[in-house]
């Protein structure tokens, strides 16, 4: 029989809802998990969020302040889905309380906060999971497997390009995401960090970067109270404020073993909706993946061109979700896999999911890119401390 | 507060599991539903299926015989996911017991059984839902909306093509699907019926057909006991039997208003995995959709070419699942929509989902296609009776 | 040294110009040809056409009447690019004069005229070429080679779909193409005949058909004098006339060896511009080609999906035109190959190019489709006479 | 009547043949040109090349040494298609002789030689053309027109990616292209220079770069005598030598007006054959083009996604080649446009085609990229001298 594990959720936005559903779905798709999550308590300053938690998500209780949640005896694990600038405080509290946590990315404000969290978790031996969802796409799992099996030969170069339009409307509100004190970076932390993680997960560690950043939309209307989503619009005709971080970044990189990489990201592209592409080239072939067609992998394993392969049995955890290739998994399924990896980490006491250390590593690359863009120089990524 | 509705499930295969998860998911994505499904009892002759129902799906109880399920007081609605040849008996029992039912397709063995079920449901006023999943894809909902709003002008012709490889391996077992007494038709009922429903849902009623059918793989190995899935393999080296129904069908059709249609389907194609495509042409434009890329709609609303539009807010129920275009819904989400429509039908006492009458209509087209293929003549579709 | 061959051209429209350029280009791409074409004389009733022939194309002379061309001693071969309804007279004159001819399609008005031409050519032993251009695409040549080598296993079914928008504008003029006495059929002869030829060239002879045809735009403005192209517009505000042949056709077919086929064509589709697609399915794989991306072949030679292969060396005559895959051949290059095959036929005295007999065969299928659409019955294709 | 213009060709390889055919084709597609090219003399040290020139291309004469060609009275213009390292000498000779020249790219060995040629041509007022073929694709012409008309709003960022496999085979010979003294750069000059020109032609001048380069295949077999093509293979089992220039380059760039750019190129990619892509993003939309599908333009002019537009009338010079969208132009047609622009420049005495100054500009960017890759610093592009 599976043991009950009590879930405490901080923040009932898109990601908080998704974490909650993923906990419930995990037992259907990973029935061997020895833990059965119970949605115990959700924290949200907003009454609507709290009502949603109890009435729709099925939490037993909801509170306004996350500080009333973490220490509770019936809370065994914590999902941290608050705005980024609160992550450090909440994560450190969870670690202090000895509670495994599942945290959305970017994990902290920059490498400093991310490092604090990662080191504290490592010191206390607290397992965790970070929301690098794209890793979990079965086609990405297959891509990593192919790369590691040498199907592409020696890897020569990598390209990730994360182009989104979520901030392309100049009438979009100047939420916390555009403020340096709250979010530090813009698209680098919000999107490109995913690309950094994909490169590091599929190919290897990024060692050095040269970057260029730009803010294309320099002013935005101030937000209505509470506006926080990627799609919130500003007060029409109201006052505007300055966008303090980058809309766009392009990064040249070198990996540890000489592999070259180009990473690019925009939050103001018009045309791509959520085109998060990964391309890996080697001496024997190449592969391509795009989040918009997340169930497809394009593979050239000889010189004759790309084969479009639909994810199917043998691709990561595909078989747990669908019976045959061609039937699509959805984005939420990736979070179910993430939940399952987190729960398995908790059950086994060893880190299985993308971890705080991975998030710290990605944040270090992002910080180095910011530094490079400011200085015009190549920047080495500071090696993570040995225990992280 | 939502009222409890007790669910009884017949058959714990792929579809039975999916129905079960969809009932649970419905309340997350359709929180306004006044009914809260409770998984009461599942019936399956196989002990493994029964264990899965209670241990993984969360049914309170499991029984071997569906006859011990339908009449129970704590069962308010019935999900019928058994092999096709048992549908009639179970559906008529549910109707007799006054229980709304959600049934997979093809609903009956041919139009005769389908008509029996549809008429019985109509006579008794029992709401129901039929698993014409593809209707629920937000891009298909948008396609229908565009067609009905005249965005393509007057519709001239339609094409559906459902190409799958699930029976392409000659070593695939001769399950009930290949037997005339069990399944009647082959790919016509199993796949092309979806295409018929899509045409009728998006454009209009099919009035006449001329068809060609063919069985390309004429012998298959006999199945191991219990083998029933699309992907079961036969006993290697064991005896073979004759495939009794068609692997492939091509159909010319006329719709009520003179629209021309071509429908084609194969279960033995190699290359397409589950390429279920719909194309609608009109005097002002055309659109295309393919299940393999179910989150995309290709629209030509002027002469300059196709725009690839990612499903997003404004496309059917997309917004209930994902926050923005580019983030993929999965196949299971379509069943969640189906569950919600079924539950809403039950709550409101009026038919909202694709119904038994729709399934009867599709079966009539399938039967006419079989008759045409046998006789070499155009066959008129018999109009459904007024009360169906 | 290559012998001089004098070319006489009938009609200086798009195709006449293209034939002329193709003769000149042939010696560059097929330098081993023992004949060197010389553009001797062009016939066109229009003075502008005659001026273009001499001033731009480089003909030595131009005449108004084709009857002043065919018999000339310095004319060794004749290119027949006139409107379709004049083909019979001109072709028979060329045959009577013992002159090899290269004729555009549809060759005659229906199978009757086509048969007259083909039989006359056969009786007199006059080599010829018919403008079934798409055969010459290197990717189609490769497709045929793969099919014949068994790379797809036993062929099960074929699909061709020729969707164009050239008549989609209701303001397009009612040229001869829309008149039964001039063109007989509409899209069947103009486009679908290409599809018939592709099926027969790549897979095998069509034996029986069941067809549906429709005219979606039933009236068009009368043309200005001389309007003859696919894109001519009618007199605005002027009188309209009745379209006498079909805009759309869909055909079910059986090939000699039991292969099933679906052929579909529209001249009024909006979205596709010139989407002429061929798909061949077999027991081991399938392939797809589309004229709009004529340098690509999509091949599934196992169950894992389609590989997009750029035409390159080893694909038909590709190597004569471009040095490597990825660099595109154009449509005109296909006519250069056609010219070269015609000239090689002339030089060797044996039929190498798609021939009058092929055109007669395609016309027989077209006629059978018209008969089937009118009668609602399956129609057997009359076998061609042995000497054709 | 058009005046005769005598053509002298230096080097009868792929490009020399293509120039020759393009001169002949130009009069068909640009009949208004007041010059009629006559192929007078070709120079090639190889007897086979000379024979091809006279026997196939139709030159009146062929000589071994280009020095016996440039000064001839009957040579009015010179096509320079020799290996890159001879360009400077030949171009300066043509300029000294007052002969307009059409030269392949990269024009010189680096910016130094390119600048010498460009300055000399400017000083002497000699019109010229440089083989930046991709500019001439009608879809690229349309892209430029859309960008300049503001259809994409204010341009924010650009991406070009030129991925080819022509050197991906490690058995490919170590021809002059891989030697620093002969070719200077590798893929930067050979391919990325095209990308630089596309960016500068469609959007604007590149001002600064930060680059990374890498040689992935460090040794190659020595070539057989005369091996010079992109596809020559080395002597099997023979001695190998060191590849002296880069297989891969990635470049961050800033344009004059703050536009960001990423340029990337590989000659050893496996999968893409000749994938030369251009993407332009602006505040109102974006567009994409790829040489492999050179007749298509993908345009997002609102937020709903990309429309795939087939090149057609209204796209550059498309109408001179094909009657309607969907019928493909080929690569050679781009050279015909280039020839016509060169001839028009000669006739009008003003520079119309991509010029030596454009080539110098591209070479300056390439040189800056090499310098950046070596130094790890951002490098400003030296402004061209005013008279260039």
Automatic annotation (TrEMBL), chains A, B, C, D:
Is Transport there in the keyword field? no
Q: Which SUPFAM superfamilies match?
A: Glyceraldehyde-3-phosphate dehydrogenase-like, C-terminal domain, NAD(P)-binding Rossmann-fold domains
InterPro entries associated with the record:
Gfo/Idh/MocA-like_OxRdtase_N, Gfo/Idh/MocA_oxidrdct_glycsds, GFO_IDH_MocA-like_dom, NAD(P)-bd_dom_sf
Domain of life, per UniProt, equals Bacteria
Keywords in alphabetical order, please.
Answer: NAD, Oxidoreductase
Q: Which GO-annotated molecular functions does the record name? A: nucleotide binding; oxidoreductase activity
Pfam families in alphabetical order: GFO_IDH_MocA (PF01408), GFO_IDH_MocA_C3 (PF22725)
Residues in GFO/IDH/MocA-like oxidoreductase domain copies: 141-288
Q: What sequence ranges are listed for the domain Gfo/Idh/MocA-like oxidoreductase N-terminal?
A: 6-132
Annotated protein name in UniProt: Gfo/Idh/MocA family oxidoreductase
Q: What species does this protein belong to?
A: Microbacterium betulae
């Amino acid at each position: 029989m599976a043991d009950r594990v009590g879930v405490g959720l901080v923040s009932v936005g898109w990601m908080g809802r998704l974490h909650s559903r993923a906990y419930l779905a995990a037992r259907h798709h990973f029935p061997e998990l020895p833990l059965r999550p119970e949605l115990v308590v959700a924290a949200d300053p907003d009454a609507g969020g709290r009502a949603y938690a109890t009435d729709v998500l099925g939490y037993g209780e909801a509170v306004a302040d996350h500080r009333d949640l973490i220490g509770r005896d019936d809370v065994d694990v914590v999902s941290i889905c608050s705005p980024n600038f609160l992550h450090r405080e909440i994560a450190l509290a969870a670690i202090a309380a000895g509670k495994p946590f599942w945290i959305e990315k970017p994990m902290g404000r920059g490498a400093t906060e991310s490092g604090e969290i990662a080191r504290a978790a490592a010191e206390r031996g607290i397992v965790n999971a970070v929301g690098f969802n794209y890793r979990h796409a079965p086609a990405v799992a297959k891509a990593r497997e192919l790369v590691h099996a040498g199907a592409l030969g020696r890897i020569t170069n990598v390209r990730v390009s994360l182009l989104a339009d979520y901030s392309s409307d100049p009438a979009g509100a100047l939420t916390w995401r555009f403020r340096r004190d709250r979010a530090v970076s813009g698209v680098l932390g919000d999107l490109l960090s995913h690309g950094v993680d994909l490169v590091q997960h599929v190919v290897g560690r990024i060692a050095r970067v040269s970057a260029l950043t730009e803010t294309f939309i320099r002013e935005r209307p101030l937000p209505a109270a509470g506006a926080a989503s990627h799609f919130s619009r500003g007060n029409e005709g109201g006052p505007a404020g300055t966008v303090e971080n980058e809309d766009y970044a392009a990064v040249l990189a070198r990996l540890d073993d000489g592999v070259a990489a180009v990473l690019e990201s925009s939050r103001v592209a018009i045309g791509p909706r959520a085109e998060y592409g990964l391309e890996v080239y080697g001496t024997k072939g190449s592969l391509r993946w795009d989040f918009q067609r997340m169930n497809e992998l394009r593979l050239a394993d000889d010189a004759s061109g790309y084969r479009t392969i639909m994810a199917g049995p043998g691709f990561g955890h595909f078989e747990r979700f669908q019976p045959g290739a061609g039937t699509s998994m959805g984005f939420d399924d990736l979070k179910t896999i993430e939940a399952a990896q987190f729960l398995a980490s908790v059950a086994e006491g060893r880190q299985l999911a993308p971890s705080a250390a991975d998030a710290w590593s990605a944040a270090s690359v992002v910080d180095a890119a910011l530094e490079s863009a400011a200085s015009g120089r190549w920047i080495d990524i500071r090696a993570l401390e040995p225990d992280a």
